[in-house]
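Need tokens for this chain, all 241 residues.
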Amino acid sequence: MRPGLKSSKLATDLAIRNKARLHVLHLTTADELHLFLPAKKLADLKGANITAEVCVHHLFFNDSDYERLGSQIKCNPAIKTRADQLALQKAVNDDILDIIATDHAPHTWEEKQADSYFKMPSGLPLVQHALLSLLDLHAQGVFSLEKIVQKTSHAIAERFELKDRGYLREGYIADLALVDLSAPFTVTKENTRYHCGWTPFMDHQFAASIAGTWVNGIHKFDGSRFIDNTVGERLQFNRSH
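Here are the structure tokens for all 241 residues:
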């Protein structure tokens, strides 16, 4: 068993033995999924709570993209094979993976162009295009809209017991994204919002576009420009620990 799998098995075994809560980040391989499915089932029987998440870029990219994008998609853990990518996508649909997350790492372009692999930092800017990436996968028939909402919103609120967030409900705080599934969006230098100024999605045409966003009930973005400068609020939790 590879070292990474050994540590994951140790963590799941400890959680089950102690009836603990365990959330595991950044699963990237089919082998890890084979470990977590029985562990999660056993945890449910033993009174533990084991959940796991996958990052958007591991669902969207695979190792065939290295030839085109190179260091732009160097991340840790690394983007794996097409077989692993397909296994991750299936695990989302089968609810083996509970949450779809991002791992936003806006390194500068200069840092990502270092003269050796080991000098290049791992990570990529992702927040702006995360939802659009998932909507591309929806357009390809990989995920339903309901599954995307569940894995990026509902499941997060439930897993971390967020107060009054994660659902479109009366009395809940309105954190919303309005999307237009019939309006393609092409990424350009001018519409890229990252302070680092680059993205591995440059010149990519997404199948959908973001028509607006609301944060804490405040209209922040109208699809082309930011219209409010207020900052967010601290999250509150429905728990005492």
